Amino acid sequence: MAATSKLNKNLWNNITRLKLLAQPNLSNRFILETNPFGNEDDEDEAETIEKDEYVIIGRIFPKSEIYKETALRIEMKLTSRYPTEAPIVRFLTPIYHPNVEIDGTFCHQLLNNAARWCDRGFSTLAEVVSVIVKHIDEPDPLYAVNLDISDEYMNRKTEFDRKAREMVKQHHVPRD
Prior knowledge:
Helix 6 (about 145-155) packs across helix 7. By secondary structure, the protein is an alpha+beta fold. The protein has helices spanning about 1-20, 45, 110, 115-120, 125-135, 145-155, 155-170; strands at about 30-35, 55-60, 70-80, 90.
């Protein structure tokens, strides 16, 4: 129970920080839609919740030319080993991007490399959101999961932009 209490206290603090990212003027804006504690506002009550997996769902707001007109819904899954283990991030909104798999899984060296996660000193979920927004706005073709999209991004940018915009238009999520 002590380990669960410590995990929940850490997760509670991280969710509280995520809630603070809802302000419209922030570069890493995040609107929390679902969290493991539901609408529970009592930290002591939250300490009693014990799960194998914790899911957080929310919206990010990229600022790049292609994605600036839409919000993107993401899911962060955390195991009971969080914060020593990185969350798994998946886009619920389909997105055409070299760092996002067809199933929506976001690939970034910080999240996919346990040593880097540990070396960073267990990043907060707010920092994870910042990493996601930065890499959606500035794709990392060297860490691409889809080599065709990466090649298109690097060598045929106009075609990449067209396809990405088409996907945004097809799966638009309001920013408000």
